[in-house]
Amino acid sequence: MTKSFLTIVLISFAMSQAFSQGYRVSLQGNQALGMGHTGVAVVNNAETAFFNPAGLVYLEDKLNVSAGAYGIFSSTKWQNTDTGQFSEVEDNVSTPFYLYASYKVNEWLTAGIASYTPFGSRVEWEKDWAGSHLVNDIELAAIFVQPMLSVKLSEHFSIGGGPIFATGNVNFNRNINRTLTDENGVRSNVTIDDSGVTNWGWSAGFMFTPTEKLRVGFHYRSLIDLNAEGGEAVFANIPNSQLVPVANGTTTFDATLPLPAEFTLGLSYQVNEKLLVAFDFNRAMWEEYDALVIEFGDPGIPASVNQRNYKNSSNYRFGLQYKAMEKLTLRGGYYYSESPVRSGYFAPETPRNDSQGYTAGLSFNVSEKLSIDASFLYLRFDEVDESYDFYFENGVAVPFEGTYKTTTFIPGIGISYKL
Amino acid sequence: MKTQNIFLIFASILFLFSCESEFESSVEDNEVYRTGEADFSNYVSLGNSLTAGFADNALYIESQQNSYPNILAQQFSLVGGGEFTQPLMNDNVGGLLVNGNPLPGFGPRLVLSTQSGSPFPAPLDGTPSTDIGNIVQGPINNLGVPGAKSFHLGLNGYGNINNVGTLANPYFVRFASSPEASVIEDAVAQGPSFFTLWIGNNDVLSYATSGGTGVDQTGNPDPASYGSTDITDPNVFAGVFTSYVEALTTTATGGVVYNIPDVTTIPFFTTVPRNAVPLDAQTAGLLNQQLALYNQQLLPGLVQFGILTPEQAAQRQIVFQEGQNYVTLTDESLIDISGILQGPPFNLDPVTANTFGQIRQATDEDLIPLTASGNIGNIVNNDPTLITGVTVPLGDESVLTVNEQMIINTARNAYNATIQSVAQAYGLAFVDVNQVLQQSQSGIPFDAGVLTSDFITGGAFSLDAVHLTPRGYALVANETIKAINETYGSNLPMVNLGDYRTIVTSDNSL
């Protein structure tokens, strides 16, 4: 029994090879992630609250709750063979989470609530590494809270959606330029920090169920701009000199970080009693992220303009789910994720090129009501030669070039409860 | 039981996928570059201040970290180079102590300060904490000793604290393996597999920076009899240089030697203009009136008596004008006419006669050391008629005359001939530093601009105008790498000059 289980898991893993595009973190449910993070047309458990609120009304139980978290273990390395320099991201363990609940009001109406972390980034390069004039470390996180309603308009068609309350925080440190130091040779640097930046957005979707076996879903989530106003900017290790335009100390900053809109269109098909297959097409409107402009409260400090020029990008996701036993469901999946970063704009704060995600997962039913959901994701990025061409010194563009290689491995665990 | 098994399997699968990224060929894992024929595993560097990483008139931790040998060692580590130990100072202030007391002449480093009102180099306001009695434990890979001349590297007792003030060098005292050890002995004892040797600069530079007050010792084979600002006999240089290479190549599979650049290419001599004295029309006219006797009677008289040729007399003419004026100076190579001027028919008083003894105005061929710039135009003894560089000629120490430059270049060219022939004889890599510094006169491009040898703004030279900035040392490292790759068939990468700083600005200065 054990042996055959292992075989199945290995096969499903081999079949599949979903996480990060820009600073979008696609980790919003362990059951869905096991299936390549598909879900816009899947009705399994309360995770549907994230993937498509329109699907919640199809959950049969009165109350559904899902909660879980992930550990992101990622390794990014950089090297430049022209100079022999190399570095790696030292620490980027972060823990996205989710919590969903739905309550069936009547046959036609279900109410839900969702809290999840769809955006985030944590990259900590070795301090004063070769690209430290662009970033030493960055930590970015946003938490969304969304109440919603799901309404069955007919036997075959439902809609759902709700407002999103977003709260975010950012902490970013980089060196002032490639060479400025204080008298002790400590690199001059600036840290910007702001937390509790809030804004509102919304999401809505529909689900069409033409036959018992086939579902088609569509879901749209709006753009939310996180406007940091009056955040804290700290300049440190600046030499005490009238010849340097900034001085040590604290000022304020304003900046806007867009959390872009995305839509997902997908379908799922129940092949037989045991096997479900799903496909999602997802497109994120990254074009919104044109430049990161940081304006400082001190009028003597020039604004920091960081060209991004992101492009809209697509994700293709495939997943399957197999009810192996009464108590055990196995999942596998694959996705291909396009990076929104254009060539020449490859900044080491989000060193992301196109990637392939291989996923696997399982649910173990502890009881009728409770199941444990586990998943893991192996995310593979090709080795890529890239550059960021928009850093200037004395008016001269000084590209930051090199080869990047990222490997990411994300285990997740959660529970689903129904009553 | 079954549940347990399932989770155990799940956990072990997770474990199988280590998340470490690996490049197809990794720089870090020595998979990118070729070593060639040389073995970089145990690299030792020998030389003077330039090798030690001296900058801004001091040695300090950060300047040492940016020494060209340290930059080289970093690149060597990509092809199996080992640990590279430097005798790091105790602070980033610079300067030395002996028995807890400041060692005169070894003070804090210079920073670019605006304390005086405009940007100018000034000593950092800090207290030196490096006591030469605290011996750094070896083996030391970077054996660069600031101030060392060619023959010092073989001198026993050069690191003996009891000899400080006489033949010892306080920097070598800090890391000599024993008080009697010589630099070359400490190098050879490590059995180096690779070496760099850049020595000989101070054999002419100390003469140059002193304005040529020393003696040209060419022909004197005994360096023990030399003064600190003398020029080393080229035969002495050839002897010691060859013996060092001979000793080092008993174990080394390869090495690099560097030639001695032309002193006239360094900002210490190119910054102060020869016509540094501004005068208004009235003052110039007044001065010319006072000099009329000298210009129109004394000099023609000396020509008439056959003491001076018409050309020599013309060279001694002193004429001022409205605007910038060439400074007046005492030139030891001129015939001293002070005695003649005191006799008939001139009958000048001794003070005036001495003033005119060996005086002339500077020409575009003369070089004025940076250290003299502060004096020019100053009033002497509160007497407004006594102006340094005008009515009070600059002394020998304040000018490097054409004649003194020729003496320097004769010796330097002899050293360079030795260095190049030794490089050839031993199959060593050779760096033509002279040519590199010549290029830096016009500018060496890097990714964010152009590196030049202009004082303060050029980026290559530190605030003492003699030693290099980290960016300048990185340039030396790159030239070294080029030479190594050509000679030994390696393909070591060069560093990016733009990653290295130039000068440090700070108003925390004295």
CATH architecture of the largest domain in chain B: 3-Layer(aba) Sandwich
Instruction: Describe the oligomeric state of these chains in a short phrase.
Output: heterodimer
Low-confidence stretches of chain A: 1-20
Q: How much beta of chain B, percentage-wise? A: 5-15%
Radius of gyration of chain A: 23 Å
Poorly predicted ranges of chain B: none
Tell me about the largest β-sheet of chain A.
Answer: 14 strands, antiparallel, barrel
Structural class determined from secondary elements of chain A: mainly beta
CATH class bucket of chain A? Mainly Beta
Keywords summarizing the entry:
heterodimer, A: 419 residues, Porin, two-stranded antiparallel sheet, 3 helices, disordered N terminus, B: 510 residues, alpha/beta, Rossmann fold, 2 domains, 5-stranded parallel β-sheet, 3-stranded mixed β-sheet, 33% helix, 12% strand
Description of the structure:
The complex is a heterodimer of chains A (419) and B (510). Chain A has 419 residues and is mainly beta. Chain A has helices at 2-15, 30-34, 48-51, and strands at 20-21, 24-25, 63-70, 73-80, 85-88, 97-106, 109-124, 137-152, 157-175, 189-208, 214-221, 224-236, 249-259, 262-270, 275-284, 291-296, 304-307, 313-323, 328-337, 355-365, 370-381, 384-388, 392-393, 396-397, 400-418. Chain A has 3 helices and 25 strands. Chain A has a 14-stranded antiparallel β-barrel. A two-stranded antiparallel ribbon of chain A has the order 1-2. The model of chain A is unreliable at 1-20 (pLDDT under 50). Chain B folds into 2 domains: 43-270 and 403-499, 3-Layer(aba) Sandwich (Rossmann fold), CATH 3.40.50; 277-361 and 367-398, no CATH class. A 5-stranded parallel beta sheet of chain B has the order 7-1-8-9-16, sandwiched between helices. Chain B has a 3-stranded mixed beta sheet with strand order 3-2-6, with no helix packed on it. Chain B has a two-stranded antiparallel sheet with strand order 4-5. In chain B, strand 14 (379-380) and strand 15 form a beta hairpin. Chains A and B meet through helix 1, strand 4, strand 5, strand 20 and strand 21 of A and helix 1, helix 3 and strand 4 of B.
